C-alpha cells in the first residue's frame, strides 16, 4: 500500500462517522428500491412466498415500522452514550492518546452503522405504506419483512457490542491492541537489521557554500514523509536534501526541518532555494495529532503514558504499570532487531540525494524506561520490571548498542540507591543487574 493511500485509510478508519454515514445512504437507497419492488410484485407473489412475508394490513405495517424506527433510534443513543463513556474512561484512567485506538474499533463503527441503517430503512419504507382510503392500499410486505429482520439483527448486534465493550475497556486488552498496532507499524516501516536496505551509518554533511535551510510550512506533528517524491525533487533540482526531523516530531512553522545544498557545486540563488524548499516541504506532511501509520514511536509513547498514569498518585496502580512495561519490552526487543540507521535515497548514479534522520535504539529505550523509572522510583517491583526490560534487551542488542544498556543500568541502580530498600528486597533487583552485566560481556561500574 502506498504511503498516501495508507494515510488516507488511517484518516477514514479512525473516525466514527464514515462507516455509519455510508450505511445510512445505503439504507435510504435500499428502502426506495424495495418499496418500488413491492409496488410491482406484491400482487403477483405465490401463496408459498407470502407465508414467509409480513401478512398484516397498512395500519399494522405502520405500527411495526414506527416501533422499529423509534426503538432503534433509542438504542442508537444508548450505544453512542456507552461509547462516549468508554472514551472518557480511557482518556482519564489510562491516556488521552488511546482515544484513537477506540475510535478505530470496527465493532463500534459497524454496530452504529447497522442501528442507524435500520432506523433509516424503516422510515423510508414507512413513507410508502398507503391505506385503502389513499387511492389504493399498498403494504410493502417485502420491505416490512426486511425491516423486521434488520431489527432482529440490530438486537443481536447490540448484545455483541455490549460484550465487546466490556472486553475493550480492560487494560490488558488495550495494552495488547496498542502493542499489536505498534508492531504492525514497525514491521511495515523499518527493515530487518542487516537485510541490505537503503540505510547509512551517518547523515551526510552539507557543503559550506550554498547550503540553505528547509523550513516547515505549518506547525504540527510530522505524520508522513514521502521519500520517493522528495528524491524526484532533489534529482530534478540537482541538490542533496537532509531532513533532521523524523515522523512523530512536533515542528513549528518556519523552523528548520533540514538543510539542502547543491550536488554539483553550482550555488542556487535565493529564488531557487525558496522554490526547492517549498517543493520538498510539500511532501513532508503534518497533522494535529500523531498517527500509528508511519510513526514507529507512537505505540511506545502510548504504552509509556499508560505506565505513567498508573504510577501517578491519583491512580496508584503499579500492577498496570508493570504490565505496560512488559509490552514496552516486547516493542523495544522488536526495535532492537530493526535497522535504525538514517534513511538514504540514491539517484540512478548511486549518489545520495535524500537523507532522513530516524530515532536510534537509544532514543527508543530512553522513551520506554526513563519516565517509568522516575515515577516508579519508590516502588522496587517497578524498578525490577525495568531491570528485566534491560535484561531482555541485553540478549538482542548489537555490540555497538551495549553501552546504551550500560548507561541505563547505571541510572536504574542510581535511582534504587536513592531509596532505603531493605537488602533482602533488593536481592532480585541486584540479580537482574548481574545478569545484564553477564549478557553485555563487560563489568558495569556503578
TrEMBL record:
Pfam families: DUF2254. InterPro entries: DUF2254_membrane. The chain crosses the membrane at residues 12-34, 64-87, 107-126, 138-162. Keywords: Membrane, Transmembrane, Transmembrane helix. This is DUF2254 domain-containing protein. The lineage of its organism: Bacteria, Bacillati, Actinomycetota, Actinomycetes, Propionibacteriales.
Amino acid at each position: 500500500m502506498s504511503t498516501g493511500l495508507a494515510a488516507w485509510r488511517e484518516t477514514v478508519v479512525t473516525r466514527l462517522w464514515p462507516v455509519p454515514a455510508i450505511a445510512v445512504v445505503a439504507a435510504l437507497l435500499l428502502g426506495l428500491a424495495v418499496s418500488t419492488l413491492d409496488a410491482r410484485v406484491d400482487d403477483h407473489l405465490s401463496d408459498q412466498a407470502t407465508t414467509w412475508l409480513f401478512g398484516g394490513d397498512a395500519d399494522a405495517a405502520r405500527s411495526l415500522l414506527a416501533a422499529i424506527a423509534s426503538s432503534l433510534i433509542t438504542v442508537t443513543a444508548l450505544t453512542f452514550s456507552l461509547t462516549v463513556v468508554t472514551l472518557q474512561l480511557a482518556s482519564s484512567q489510562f491516556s488521552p492518546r488511546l482515544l484513537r485506538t477506540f475510535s478505530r474499533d470496527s465493532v463500534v463503527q459497524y454496530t452504529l452503522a447497522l442501528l442507524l441503517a435500520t432506523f433509516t430503512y424503516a422510515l423510508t419504507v414507512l413513507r410508502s405504506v398507503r391505506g385503502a382510503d389513499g387511492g389504493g392500499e399498498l403494504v410493502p410486505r417485502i420491505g416490512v419483512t426486511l425491516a423486521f429482520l434488520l431489527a432482529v439483527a440490530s438486537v443481536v448486534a447490540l448484545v455483541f457490542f455490549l460484550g465487546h465493550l466490556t472486553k475493550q475497556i480492560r487494560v490488558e486488552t488495550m495494552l495488547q491492541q496498542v502493542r499489536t498496532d505498534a508492531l504492525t507499524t514497525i514491521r511495515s516501516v523499518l527493515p530487518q537489521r542487516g537485510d541490505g536496505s537503503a540505510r547509512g551509518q551517518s547523515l551526510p554533511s552539507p557543503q559550506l557554500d550554498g547550503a540553505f535551510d528547509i523550513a516547515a510550512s505549518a506547525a504540527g506533528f510530522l505524520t508522513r514523509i514521502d521519500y520517493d517524491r522528495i528524491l524526484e525533487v532533489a534529482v530534478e533540482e540537482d541538490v542533496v536534501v537532509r531532513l533532521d526531523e523524523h515522523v512523530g516530531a512536533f515542528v513549528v512553522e518556519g523552523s528548520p526541518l533540514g538543510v539542502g545544498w547543491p550536488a554539483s557545486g553550482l550555488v542556487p540563488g535565493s529564488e531557487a532555494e525558496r522554490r526547492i524548499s517549498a517543493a520538498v516541504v510539500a511532501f513532508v506532511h503534518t497533522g494535529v495529532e500523531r498517527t500509528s501509520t508511519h510513526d514507529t514511536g507512537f505505540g511506545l509513547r502510548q504504552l509509556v503514558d499508560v505506565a505513567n498514569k498508573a504510577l501517578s498518585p491519583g491512580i496508584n496502580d503499579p500492577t498496570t504499570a508493570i504490565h505496560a512495561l512488559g509490552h514496552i519490552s516486547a516493542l523495544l526487543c522488536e526495535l532492537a532487531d530493526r535497522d535504525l540507521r538514517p534513511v538514504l535515497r540514491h539517484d540512478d548514479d548511486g549518489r545520495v540525494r535524500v537523507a532522513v534522520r530516524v530515532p536510534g535504539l537509544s532514543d527508543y529505550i530512553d522513551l520506554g524506561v526513563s519516565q517509568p523509572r522516575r515515577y516508579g522510583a519508590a516502588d522496587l517491583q517497578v524498578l525490577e520490571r525495568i531491570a528485566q526490560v534491560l535484561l531482555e534487551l541485553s540478549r538482542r542488542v548489537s555490540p555497538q548498542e551495549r553501552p546504551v544498556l550500560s548507561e541505563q543500568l547505571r541510572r536504574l541502580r542510581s535511582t534504587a540507591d536513592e531509596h532505603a530498600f531493605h537488602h533482602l528486597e533488593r536481592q532480585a533487583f541486584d540479580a537482574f543487574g548481574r545478569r545484564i552485566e553477564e549478557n553485555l560481556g563487560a563489568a558495569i561500574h556503578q
